[in-house]
Write a structure and sequence with these properties.
340 residues, mainly alpha, 17 helices, 3 strands, 4% strand, SEC_C_motif, TPR-like_helical_dom_sf, SEC-C domain-containing protein
């Protein structure tokens, strides 16, 4: 599907089938591709088929990078076609597992919200936010939907602002405030005959649309390319011209961290790291009709991996292991200066 294809013109079953075929050709990307396929099945109205796809992922012998995300999506889908009890059980399981990725928290909380379980949705948003943002100097871009969703639900419940609501207000950059966007009384103005009220609502909707477009314009992180020791040795041995780009593995790791901090300091949101492999890089170079020894391909390769769902968010969540593969906590490894 072309990125500029209007949503109403998408053949969702055909797109789901195409993605499933692609997953068969690229098993390393199967999880991300099959999740997209399941989304198309949901949009086509074939929710049982989407559930079957989620089940096939969860039963995969190879394991999943983000099983909590798959379970959250399955629960949301099940509830939409009448399997409320099973959906609730899965949601409780996701909450009990306390995932370190914001996406499962957002999905299960929004599922509760969409079925008018506002108190439970507020508790779920809060649990996720407190878990992921305690002692974090700057909320990662991926956590913004968690904070905004929590603000929205608390506004509908009429709860007073707290520290996380204030943080959400600070992160929100649109001209219309979050309090206005999430005002429960807005729905009343849609039935008003007062031109001024209708014009105000149109302005709010335009602001919301701007926020959605901003989020959609960055569907995957700005990613920096990472090589393991073994892969980098193989890469430089096969393509000596890249030795100038990678003098040593230690310097490579230091450059990654420095680059990400520089991007963060410049205000670039939604940062990540992708880990390359030599066979994958060679296949990418062949698809571009270029030599793998051409260093200008490296950032393009990183962007391609990020677009295929291979990026890991940076900085790691509190308590997570370092991105470099050392097995040490990030705060005691490459994040030591960041924490200080």
């Amino acid at each position: 599907m072309r990125p500029d294809t209007p949503a109403e013109n998408v053949d969702h079953p055909a797109e789901a089938a195409r993605l499933e075929r692609t997953a068969g050709r690229y098993p390393e990307d199967a999880e991300a591709l099959l999740l997209q396929a399941a989304a198309h099945l949901e949009l086509s109205g074939d929710r049982p088929a989407a559930t079957a796809l989620y089940d096939s992922l969860l039963s995969s012998a190879d394991g999943l990078e983000n099983p909590h995300l798959v379970r959250a999506l399955k629960a949301s889908n099940l509830w939409e076609y009448g399997h409320e009890a099973e959906a609730r059980a899965i949601i409780e399981g996701v909450r009990s597992a306390s995932p370190r990725d914001p996406a499962p928290w957002v999905i299960v909380a929004e599922a509760l919200e969409s079925h008018d379980e506002l108190e439970q949705a507020q508790e779920t948003f809060t649990e996720g936010a407190r878990l992921l943002l305690t002692d974090v100097p700057e909320p990662p871009y991926s956590t913004h939907p968690l904070l905004f969703g929590r603000h929205r639900v608390r506004r509908m419940l009429g709860l007073p602002h707290d520290d996380l609501d204030t943080l959400a207000d600070t992160l929100h950059s649109m001209p219309i405030s979050l309090d206005e966007l999430h005002d429960p009384k807005r729905v009343w103005s849609l039935g008003s005959d007062n031109p001024a009220e209708l014009e105000a609502e149109i302005s709010r909707l335009r602001a919301e649309l701007g926020a959605y477009r901003e989020a959609l314009s960055r569907p995957f992180p700005v990613a920096v390319l990472h090589w393991t020791v073994a892969e980098l040795e193989e890469l430089v041995e096969a393509y000596p011209t890249l030795a100038e780009e990678y003098p040593s593995h230690e310097e490579h790791l230091a450059t990654i961290e420095a680059s990400l901090r520089e991007l963060s300091a410049s205000g670039t949101p939604n940062l990540g790291i992708v880990t390359g492999t030599v066979p994958s890089y060679e296949a990418f170079a062949a698809s571009e009709g270029a030599s793998p020894g051409d260093a200008t391909l490296l950032p393009q390769y990183a962007t391609t991996l990020a677009a295929r769902g291979r990026a890991v968010g940076w900085p790691p969540q509190r308590g997570a292991v370092c991105w470099c593969g050392s097995g040490q906590p990030y705060g005691a490894c490459h994040g030591v200066e960041q924490q200080g």
